[in-house]
């Protein structure tokens, strides 16, 4: 199996549409981009909110004693129905920690579960120098995690989800040239109203490239996530959209053909402009087992 | 030969992206530590909050006993009249993000004074306080 294909499958499993604010599930689906029949992935990530950007574009970094972090474990699986169609699902569980000086709160909880399907719209039956492989995917996210509107914590440490059903439509294009690979991803999500609350639509773009050296791949990615304002009746509406740029760096390896391991780092403080959003840094370790 | 060219293109694209935007890492301020046990009289002797209550009005001064800052906040309202018979509610919201807060603790210190404690503002930014007396909602904006 191509190291690039396996590694990219891991690399793009980034929290592209995870809410810029207050948790959310990792929404780039666990696509099978190899010739496997199925795959299972386990992911552990540690993220820290280092500050926030305001609506005017200015950014403030948190002082010592104002701490917010999340440890997330995510199990995902994908199953190929035939050479073009596949199904996938993701189940996240997280521990959120919030501390302000002497007040420290931590909470374990389930995140938003998602299921979806993908279709390989453009296959690569014969190698072409320019034509990429392209998958179209659709996902449904269930509000199984507690949202900030349902929080019972003064510091909102018990927030693990978005609180509304979401539907995502996206596409992933992937291309390899010998030891170099590149991908581009776009996805758009809309939420159903729930309890007088309508979350703003979210759009994420991401592009990345990698270099393969033997059994290892080293990659970098970059992309913006935009989320519209929240509309609420009888509650608190947000008046401003959110924008954040996520830069990512990945190192991957393939072990014994069927196992893949990826270590990645994502940083939302490197690039701007950013508006009206918390800014996080996260490290993720992900293991994937393929089944042929 | 193709690989270095593609890598160079990717690098150029990244540099361009950096140049086009305002990096939070390069351009940011640091959150300040909250002041504690220091009364900040915002309108000493004046009328910071004016309530139109039917035929009469009430005037109050507003003082931050703790904060305003990310974390726990405490503030005190001193009225120029007896308000003990009037219902009082306090909430805070962050309109840009759509955040609210847990209900704070409201203590009637005297017939003319109300203290609002356990008001947790969870992140930096623009917050709007709703200080509702006798059904009249008066708002004050604070940036932390």
Under CATH, the topology of chain A can be stated as Lipocalin
Give the proportion of residues in helices of chain B: 10-25%
Largest interface: A-B, 57 and 41 residues
Q: How many domain units of chain A?
A: 1
How many domains of chain B, as an integer?
Answer: 1
Word description of this protein:
The complex is a heterodimer of chains A (292) and B (144). With 292 residues, chain A is mainly beta. Helices cover 3% and strands 58% of the residues of chain A. Chain A has one domain (3-291): Lipocalin. A 12-stranded antiparallel barrel of chain A has the order 1-3-4-6-7-8-9-11-12-14-15-16. Chain A has a two-stranded antiparallel ribbon with strand order 10-13. The model of chain A is unreliable at 18-27 (pLDDT under 50). With 144 residues, chain B is mainly β. The longest helix of chain B is centred in the N-terminal third of the chain and has 19 residues, at 2-20. At the A-B interface, strand 1, strand 2 and strand 11 of A face helix 1 and strand 1 of B. Strand 2 (59-61) of chain A pairs parallel with strand 1 of chain B.
Please provide a brief summary of the model.
The complex is a heterodimer of chains A (292) and B (144). By secondary structure, chain A is mainly beta.
Give me some keywords for this one.
heterodimer, A: 292 residues, mainly beta, Lipocalin, twelve-stranded antiparallel beta barrel, two-stranded antiparallel sheet, 1 helix, 58% strand, B: 144 residues, Immunoglobulin-like, six-stranded antiparallel β-sheet, three-stranded antiparallel β-sheet, elongated
């Amino acid at each position: 199996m191509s190291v690039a294909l396996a590694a990219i499958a891991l690399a793009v499993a980034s929290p592209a549409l995870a809410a810029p604010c207050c948790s959310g599930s990792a929404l780039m689906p666990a696509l099978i981009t190899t010739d496997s029949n199925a795959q299972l992935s386990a992911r552990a990530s540690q993220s820290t909110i280092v500050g926030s950007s305001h609506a005017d574009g200015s950014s403030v970094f948190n002082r010592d004693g104002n701490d917010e972090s999340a440890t997330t474990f995510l199990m995902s699986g994908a199953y190929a129905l035939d050479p073009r169609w596949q199904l996938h699902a993701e189940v996240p569980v997280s521990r959120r920690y919030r501390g302000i000086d002497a007040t420290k709160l931590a909470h374990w909880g389930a995140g938003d579960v998602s299921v979806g399907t993908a279709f390989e719209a453009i296959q690569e039956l014969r190698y072409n120098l320019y034509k990429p492989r392209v998958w179209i995917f659709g996902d449904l996210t269930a509000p199984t995690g507690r949202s900030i509107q349902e929080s019972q914590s003064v510091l909102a440490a018990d927030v693990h989800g978005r609180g509304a059903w979401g539907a995502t439509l996206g596409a992933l294009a992937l291309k390899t040239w010998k030891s170099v690979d590149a991908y581009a991803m776009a996805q758009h999500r809309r939420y159903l109203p729930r309890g007088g609350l309508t979350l703003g639509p979210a759009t994420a773009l991401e592009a990345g490239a990698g270099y393969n050296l033997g059994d290892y791949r080293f990659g970098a990615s970059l992309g913006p996530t935009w989320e519209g304002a929240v509309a609420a009746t009888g509650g608190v509406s947000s008046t401003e959209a959110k924008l954040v740029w996520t830069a990512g760096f990945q190192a991957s390896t393939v072990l014994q053909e069927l196992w893949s391991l990826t270590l990645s780092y994502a940083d939302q403080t490197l690039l701007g402009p950013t508006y009206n959003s918390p800014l996080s840094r996260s490290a993720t370790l992900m293991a994937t087992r393929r089944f042929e | 030969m193709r690989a270095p060219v593609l890598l160079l293109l990717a690098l150029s694209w990244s540099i361009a992206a950096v140049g086009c935007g305002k990096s939070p890492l390069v351009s940011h301020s640091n959150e300040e530590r909250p002041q504690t046990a220091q009364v900040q009289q915002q309108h000493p002797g004046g009328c910071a909050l004016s309530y139109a209550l039917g035929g009469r009005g009430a005037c109050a001064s507003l003082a931050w006993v703790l904060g305003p800052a990310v974390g726990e906040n405490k503030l005190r309202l001193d009225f120029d009249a007896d308000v003990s018979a009037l219902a009082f509610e306090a909430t805070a919201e962050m309109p840009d993000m759509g955040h609210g807060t847990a209900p704070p603790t409201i203590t009637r210190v005297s017939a003319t004074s109300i203290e609002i404690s356990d008001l947790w503002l969870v992140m930096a930014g623009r917050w709007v306080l709703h200080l509702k007396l006798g059904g009249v909602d008066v708002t004050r904006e604070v940036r932390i």
